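User: Can you fold this complex?
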Amino acid sequence: MDKNLIIYNSLTRKKETFEPINPPYVGLYVCGPTVYGDAHLGHARPAITFDLLYRYLKHLDYKVRYVRNITDVGHLENDADEGEDKIAKKARLEQLEPMEVVEYYTHRYHENMDALNVLRPSIEPKASGHIIEQQEMVRNILQSGFAYEVNGSVYFDVEKYNQTHDYGKLSGRKLEDMQANTRQLEGQEEKKNPYDFALWKKASPEHIMRWPSTWSNGFPGWHLECSAMSTKYLGEQFDIHGGGMDLLFPHHECEIAQSTAANGKESVKYWMHNNMITINGQKMGKSLGNFITLDEFFSGNHKVLDKPYSPMTVRFFILQAHYRSTVDFSNEALQAAEKGLERLLKAGKVLQQLRAGKESTINIKPLKDNCYQAMNDDLNSPILIAHLFEAVRLIHLLKEGKENLNTNDLEQLKNLYHTFVYDILGLQEEASDRSELTSDLIDMILTLRLEAKKNKDFDTADKIRDELTQKGIKIKDTKDGYEWEV
RNA sequence: GGUCGGUUGGCCGAGUGGCUAGGCACUGGUCUGCAAAACCACGUACGGCGGUUCGAAUCCGCCACCGACCUCCA
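Assistant: Here's the predicted assembly.
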């Protein structure tokens, strides 16, 4: 096993050798969803990207604590005084309790992620369950002098922080530029500067989600939850923080500032950001309204979808692009992924049935090295997949007896294939929904058809085939039998 | 406007200063009662214009176009 993992660090904008702060332990924090709507294709990207990372780190024998939060409070609509929590707003519209909305969409999110074979994180903390910790952090930042209180709200003093630290180091921004470019929004009179951000916000009378504090009845600012929860579960310094590129500024920039201000040191060693999924060249996003939910993909129930796409197809589609590239959705691309995936999984089945020969005519080692090399190079899943397709070609040659492997090498190939396809890429066969009785009946019918064929009664044979095909059952004639699938 | 990134063959999508990823589609072939499926074979593409170099799609400059972030966002 080649453990020389290199990852691209957004903070330094370079590929760096991954060295955990405290090996063999690895702390991984990823920004999870805000649960006020169904997950769409865009949400699958970070989930799958960091699932790949999580799986690979575990494969490399690291002891990983993976924390992915659920944001259920604190997203101000527009940072204005009247700013209303997104969760609360949705709740009002549907006449539900805020926590009811949270629970509902959290469950739906879990169902989608399970379908995509995304492993559950070690800890999945909710912001609403960590108000105390967030208040503690606000207190720490106030104490260190990098925040100020106005009318029951507490804001982070960006200018003061920037005098001794570098606000903008992650996003590559300079404070002077931001001064000129920050949008003028309403209700910002309280802040010293427009780019200051809320740590604690006093709740307006109609605001439902609120908690008592020394400053006011209110709620924490959005950026605070990740800082507070990552510190609580991974410590003041931890290894990897991930999330979507769109969170880089301001969210992650603010996290750095908060953690540094509160703890006096940099919290994150490696920042990793996945790129966006686009549709017609544009980012698929909640606010643009051009998103397709995962359920819609799975059911095919959306006007731009030609057909349903299975969770594994979606997963494979995402893995076929490198996580730092944008990936453009299209029916054509999805269908190409669907077929490619099918070939990969079928070859896996063929591999299980291969028998070893006396001597190996091919060397497995380069293939193995290539697979590790691809993953070690900043999780290059598309390259890994390319190598796995080389393995597919090999498997077919072995099946046809054009090449041979001895017992040991064949075992190695099986292990390799299983490890990378199923364990690391997290691909799996789709569950079939047919009952045993149905299977038996189809087998019976096809046995009759086989007899008809033997008697050269092709009319009957074709009739059976046509009718079964109409029912969605694919029949493949083999040398002296048949195969079928729904 | 500021900051950052992208432009690769019919589609998707890697990558690198010289050794033409990969998938899908197309086409041809093998197999088959026929068909389907499988399998095999198959394309020298890198936005435009200059420059550096023995050699650039890969480095540099300019231009064009597209996008992300700057406001909630995965």
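Residues 112 and 295 of chain A are 7 Å apart (CA to CA). Residues 76-82 of chain A have pLDDT under 50 and may be disordered.
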